[in-house]
Amino acid sequence: MKKIFLSFCTLFMINKSLSQTLEKMIWFNEPEKWEIKDNRLSMFVTPQSDYWRISHYGFTVDDAPFLYTTYGGEFEAKVKIKGSYKARFDQMGLMLRIDKENYIKAGIEFVDGKYNLSTVVTHKTSDWSVIALDKIPSEVWVKAVRRLDAVEVFYSFDDKNYIMMRNAHLQDNSPVMVGLMAACPDGNGFNAVFENFKVKHLPDERRLQWLQNHK
């Protein structure tokens, strides 16, 4: 009986690990050219596409590729990104999206010939923060941690040491579309590669506190 139970647990864990695959995710603004293989998404980013709302520029766009899955509650999302950036504002990374007026996108954005760690936070209108990089990294990892009504965004060059680049509000107790975004607002498209995308469930902090107080 013990062996049967252990075998069931092993099979369950294998199925669970296989169930979180890119193939089961959903496209919003599917690009013309893309491929999924070995937990790796490659795409040619749609030219003249972006996510932005109103502020500074005076326009709203919501038409860039976004491959997503939906999560409720609290979680940690992480992905490794690499792009052949060419034109101003070429970008790729993670996106967390409640709806067209509430989303966070974070990753690398190519501006004036430089790589920038970039975060755009949108609540009816968009804002933009950047950290310019002196050297071009071969690979970048981006991680977003949703806790209560906030999202912490981190970056890493080795998937070991993570540095926070932004802490932003995102409404809690609402399902979130989380996934892989790339945009090419000012160019003719570029090749983007996402690897090892993973979302990890985090126990709800309020519930844990309630359980602790009601032992």
What report would you give on this structure?
Strands 1-6-15-8-9-10-11 form a seven-stranded antiparallel β-sheet, with no helix packed on it. β12 and β13 form a beta hairpin. Mean pLDDT is 92; it is low at 2-19. The protein is built from two helices and 16 strands. By secondary structure, it is mainly β. The radius of gyration is 18 Å and the shape is globular. It has one domain: Jelly Rolls (Sandwich). The protein is 13% helix and 53% strand.
Q: What structural class do helix, strand and pairing data support?
A: mainly beta
* Count of alpha and pi helical runs: 2
Helix content: 10-25%
- Give me the oligomer status: single chain
Reading the helices and strands in chain order gives HEEEEEEEEEEEEEEEEH
Kindly identify the CATH topology: Jelly Rolls
Overall mean pLDDT stands at 92
Task: Categorize the overall geometry.
Answer: globular
| DSSP strand tally | 16
How many separate structural domains? 1
Regions with little confidence, pLDDT below 50 for 5+ residues:
2-19
Instruction: Calculate the terminal CA-CA distance, rounded to whole Å.
Output: 32 Å
C-alpha Rg (nearest Å): 18 Å
CATH class: Mainly Beta
Strand percentage lies at over 45%
Order of the strands making up the biggest sheet: 1-6-15-8-9-10-11
Largest sheet: 7 strands, antiparallel
Architecture (CATH level 2) name: Sandwich
